[in-house]
Amino acid sequence: FFFKGFILFYSFKDFIYLFIDTEREAETQAEGEAGCMIMPWAEGRSSPESFSALSWKADPEAHTPPPLQEPSGPSPPSQAQQKESVQAVRRSLPVFPFREELLAAIADHQVLIIEGETGSGKTTQIPQYLFEEGYTKKGMKIACTQPRRVAAMSVAARVAREMGVKLGNEVGYSIRFEDCTSERTVLRYMTDGMLLREFLSEPDLASYSVVMVDEAHERTLHTDILFGLIKDVARFRPELKVLVASATLDTARFSTFFDDAPVFRIPGRRFPVDIFYTKAPEADYLEACVVSVLQIHVTQPPGDILVFLTGQEEIEAACEMLQDRCRRLGSKIRELLVLPIYANLPSDMQARIFQPTPPGARKVVVATNIAETSLTIEGIIYVLDPGFCKQKSYNPRTGMESLTVTPCSKASANQRAGRAGRVAAGKCFRLYTAWAYQHELEETTVPEIQRTSLGNVVLLLKSLGIHDLMHFDFLDPPPYETLLLALEQLYALGALNHLGELTTSGRKMAELPVDPMLSKMILASEKYSCSEEILTVAAMLSVNNSIFYRPKDKVVHADNARVNFFLPGGDHLVLLNVYTQWAESGYSSQWCYENFVQFRSMRRARDVREQLEGLLERVEVGLSSCQGDYIRVRKAITAGYFYHTARLTRSGYRTVKQQQTVFIHPNSSLFEEQPRWLLYHELVLTTKEFMRQVRGPSFAQESEDVWGGRILARFNLLRLAEKQENINLR
Ligand code: CDP
Ligand code: MG
């Protein structure tokens, strides 16, 4: 039978029955169609070392930490009580018994690798210990880096609460386009990218006494670059303390990299986790997830559920499906709180996942990878893992960066499973077969540096005076072609000269925390006197294609609203138009609602715009407006993005640089028009290779003007750059 999509047609009695009688259903499924929605769980072996009974220490009861938040009872606890309970929670964390030992090790060694199970208190406690120990005396600061914005924000908020200070005073965070710190801030949580930018203003990090590179196992591009830079700084600043904190992965490599620095292990507190696999692969993992959550909810004892999905859209869809089905089941099932968590979720919504589950109810948190190691949610007993994540990949030959849903690694799968065993013995349901786990998953995730474009980082390193990139101390070096392409592109943009040295314009470009092409566009707006408009375009491009809102029940209205913003000349001008009209409405949320525009994205664009405007002075660009002369705006865009040119051929569009076949995204304002020349903001690979945010059509003519006809010469730079690199980089 087809269970898919028909779950609600069964009476509740059948519903329970269907779930419990898995044996029978498994058979039914075998002879039925793929995508049967009863999960016939096969109990698998616990994964080799991670879930051995050895890691199960002492009595579970004794280790269960007290609730994190004060229960909101009728009489709120007094301040003193609250303080006491905060301290009790702090003392209950696995890192606490090692406080003195850890501080002694830090005092004894300049570099220390700290390994500990997720949730043991590395991120929130260690910086506080250092603070208490006096590492912030004489105005010195402690930096703690996080790969993710959300983690930096939420952890800083947590620590501020524990210390009883206002966020932004002693404890603050700083992420791109958002700085919540002040003169007084001594504990700085920041994204790894922000610490990297600190090197520009303070190459020896002189105002920091301790740098803690946290979540090092994530191996983000920025973290990897930080390793090289910090190792270098540590050599000539013997008093600087370097801590590299990581979940229980890869620590030996970090130690080797930092000249055999000692590893400090915080013994884990992990209860056994039973792992279940599906007997057959799942065709539709989203549907399978939803059904499995309900299955767990109905058949399993109390305990919250954590589901790993790959991104916002998927998470929203799953949450909607879950809520919908719960609503229809009504009082037949106990209350199920469905809470999403992903990077763009507003912070008040994010905070909800940390609130304790009301008695009698069950919470299901539907999360991205963010809950894998950077965030710990109390009370999770069940983990549901479809085995996918969204991963960036980059092909230097085509210059194509894509974000695709790919199977996660074994290391990831084990981290995910581990989230179920934090407070008591747990269960992890994997929506794939045991065979797939053994044979199809990679051991570990490839470090980001090997699968991303490097323009930004190369520009930054060059402006830090690091000339010899081939010999930079990389933990894992990036592919040679990627590095070369980055150099070539920076040369084409005029950021590097023919000797591979940073130019004045390159120095300015590095000042702006955006991609080199975007920086170039902003700098060019000075020449064409349209910086006001270009700032808007840049800000709108930075908010990631989430401007328009398209509810399923109002598709026609939404599409009409979108088309109303169209202007001849392409999507950049459409974005400009949306923003300008919104600004004219007094930045109104009502206006957004009426025009099917996402208010949240617009608010973020406004923030980004303000931040960029504040940086203009540093790069010597004055504020000016083109007064409706959009040709000037288009020229500035061309100056930054000429590299991204495509030409219409008989078989569709081809990129001029790499001769890739590409298509205009159906959402583009130029989708119908199909102009002969196009300039695109980015390529995305979904069902096809799409160009997003395109502009035309008089591109060739304008570029002539901007580049004085040298454009094609500049496209053939690879050999030149390589020659340069031979001279300068080896
Ligand atoms: O860094 P590590 O994974 O070792 O642990 P942590 O992030 O310092 O978390 C320690 C404790 O603080 C955990 O019990 C978390 O649940 C709690 N925490 C929280 O309640 N809210 C946050 N925003 C961060 C941590
Ligand atoms: Mg942490």
TrEMBL record:
List the GO cellular component terms. Answer: catalytic step 2 spliceosome; U2-type catalytic step 1 spliceosome
Extract the SUPFAM superfamilies matched here.
P-loop containing nucleoside triphosphate hydrolases (SSF52540)
Q: What is its EC number?
A: 3.6.4.13
One Pfam match: WHD_HA2
User: What is the annotated localization of this protein?
Assistant: Nucleus
Question: Residue ranges of region Disordered?
Answer: 57-86
- Which reaction is this enzyme known to catalyze? ATP + H2O = ADP + phosphate + H(+)
Q: Listed GO molecular functions? A: ATP binding; hydrolase activity; RNA binding; RNA helicase activity
Q: Which spans does this entry mark as compositional bias, Pro residues?
A: 63-77
Keywords, ordered alphabetically:
ATP-binding, Helicase, Hydrolase, mRNA processing, mRNA splicing, Nucleotide-binding, Nucleus, Spliceosome
According to its UniProt record, this protein's enzyme class is hydrolase
Domain Helicase C-terminal positions: 292-465
Primary subcellular site in the record, as a coarse category: nucleus
Residue ranges constituting the Helicase ATP-binding domain according to the UniProt record: 103-267
GO biological process terms on file: mRNA splicing, via spliceosome
In its UniProt entry, what is this protein called? RNA helicase
Q: Which organism is it from?
A: Canis lupus dingo (dingo)
